[in-house]
């Protein structure tokens, strides 16, 4: 935990909360370093099955703090410097972004790097790089069109226009939209359903590796990754029974009806 990043543990779920409300949760050098370190630590911790990233109200993050451009000790100013977004993309565990308010530019790049995004009804998204006269370096031009389509991505990037939560859901930028007070409880419930099995990391790797392949290539990748794998049939049967019981017992929040992809 640092003065700008809160860390909490809820069972097997690690919650990271950006805490710089006086600066709209903008990411200065200290916070960027803290985010990278916290993600790396969570990825190495066997007790952590999933990570939630959120911010202190009323915003998620205004992106990079252009008023405080000092670098952290491991940053040189090169485009090859480690970034929070790159560390998130390298995670072997699911990272769920719980966007509680405005999410702009660098923060949008971090959100897009997460496994999926859950949004409060107050969430708003924008890419303001062009308005500031700078070009993205954390992956936005690769990630945004994959989420919303290239035409919508171009429009967002060259105009800087905001997309509200409902439009974000409609265009595929987020997975769910929740009433603001239900955002974190819902996201915690969702994260708690993620098992701690090695299969989760393998599936995330297959999705990541297959994203730019043809259908045939992605199918071949899945087949190749299965060669040589062995399964304990007794354990597999027990896990199947446990999963079935878990699905029968789960009751999603009523507020989620009709507002998810």
TrEMBL record:
UniProt xrefs under Pfam families: ECH_1 (PF00378)
Region (Disordered): 241-261
Example of a GO MF term: catalytic activity
Coiled-coil boundaries: none
Origin superkingdom: Bacteria
Homology family: Belongs to the enoyl-CoA hydratase/isomerase family.
Name of the molecule in the record: Enoyl-CoA hydratase
Native source organism of the sequence: Mycobacterium syngnathidarum
């Amino acid at each position: 935990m640092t003065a700008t990043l809160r860390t909490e543990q809820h069972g097997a779920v690690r919650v990271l909360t950006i805490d710089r409300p006086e600066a709209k949760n903008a990411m200065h050098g200290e916070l960027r370093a803290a985010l990278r370190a916290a993600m790396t630590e969570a990825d190495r911790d066997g007790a952590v099955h999933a990570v939630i990233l959120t911010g202190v109200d009323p915003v998620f993050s205004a992106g990079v703090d252009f008023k405080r451009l000092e670098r952290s000790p491991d940053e040189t100013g090169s485009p090859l410097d480690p970034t929070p977004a790159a560390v998130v993309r390298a995670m072997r565990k699911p990272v769920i972004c719980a966007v509680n308010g405005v999410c702009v530019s660098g923060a949008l790049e971090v959100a897009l790097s997460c496994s999926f995004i859950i949004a409060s009804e107050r969430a708003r998204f924008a890419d303001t790089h062009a308005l500031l006269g700078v070009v993205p370096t954390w992956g936005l031009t690769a990630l945004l069109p994959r989420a919303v389509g290239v035409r919508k991505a171009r429009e967002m990037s060259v105009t800087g226009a905001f997309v509200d939560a409902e439009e974000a859901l409609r265009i595929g930028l987020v997975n769910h939209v929740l009433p603001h007070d239900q955002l974190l409880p819902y996201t915690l419930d969702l994260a708690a359903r993620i098992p701690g099995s090695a299969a989760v990391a393998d599936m995330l790797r297959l999705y990541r590796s297959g994203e730019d392949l043809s259908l045939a290539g992605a199918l071949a990748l899945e087949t190749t990754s299965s060669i040589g794998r062995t399964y304990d049939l007794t354990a597999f049967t027990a896990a199947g029974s446990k999963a079935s019981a878990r699905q029968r017992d789960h009751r999603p929040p009523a507020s989620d009806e009709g507002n998810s992809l």
